[in-house]
From TrEMBL:
Its main location: membrane. It is a multi-pass membrane protein. Pfam families: Na_Ca_ex. It comes from Nesterenkonia xinjiangensis. This is Cation:H+ antiporter. GO terms for molecular function: calcium channel activity; calcium, potassium:sodium antiporter activity.
Amino acid sequence: MTILSILLLLGGFVLLVAGGEALVRGAGSLGRTAGLSSLVVGLTIVSFATSSPELAVSTGAALSGSPGLAVGNVVGSNIANILFVLGLTAIFGALAVRLQLIRADIPVMIGFSVLLLVLALDGGFSTGDGVLLLVLLVAYLVALLLYARRQQVHGAAPQVDVAAEDGEDDDGGPGELVRALRATTLRSVLTDLVLVAVGVALLVGGARMLVSGATDIAEAFGVSELIIGLTVVAIGTSLPELATSIIAALRGDREMAVGNLVGSNIFNIGAVIGVTAVIAPQGIAIDPAAIHFDLPVMLATALVLLPLAFTGQSIGRWEGALLVALYASYVAYLVMAAAHHAALGPFSVAMMWFVLPMTALWIIALVGYEVGLRHGRRQRLSG
């Protein structure tokens, strides 16, 4: 490992964050111009924009002969999105969850996670697997947009305040420049397209630097590319989701914050793995460790989101703290396993036989309590 490797890694992170920010602003504004609701913008435009780093890193890694980094990045990013990003965002303020997410979008995310695990059981993702994932993603998007249009026709799709999202104010400064650039619809669209183009360019450059630096560091420390992808690169490429979700939550747009992360996870599986499998010369070979541990963990994190979102149709601060604690435990396990640390055995026993069962029982009890409350309300209304 050299100083150049560290500079490449840090420089890649910086470019990814800057590119993701530019892409989010441009793509989000374009979606609002099209009249999409806040939730749909979060599930589509914003989530796909913030997932662009994962797409750039994974495709670049596959083409450069590092499939372990490509798969590890996507799986690690999906785990980080739910446990770390969603948890940290919820700590800043409870996140609202609309019924559409509980009934449709979160189950779709779980379905994609199950499918990815099943496709991986033969040891890799073929071109056919990639095509299947892309087709299912397109079908989901078509259904989502048709539903959004029906809601808009019936007047049930609230619109996002573009001025508030872009930080416009009456005190001059950046707000004056934004108003000047978006004085007309045409100028607004052109500004958004420029932001998208700049964002994509920064993301591609940052992805190449990140893959190069992460690979060098993995070789220097003797750590597998899978572990690097699951931790360092996964968190780095999740920074756009983290920034976007926290900003949305602080501005009170909590539906977009949750929609961004759910949509990002769907896009990561459907588009990132799908495209990478299609363009990789020999498909994508999967490390057995990912099949036996990391993919099941990704599925478990997707499953745990459904009951948390169901209870009170929100994700509270304590639930966010629980998710962050689980992510910290997951990263600690990866680090100890990679280093063959003596504490790995006791740590694994404690997690497997105490922490995880107690967490599961706690979530089951909360769901039962919520079901009882809703049943009681229905009885009072019918009486």
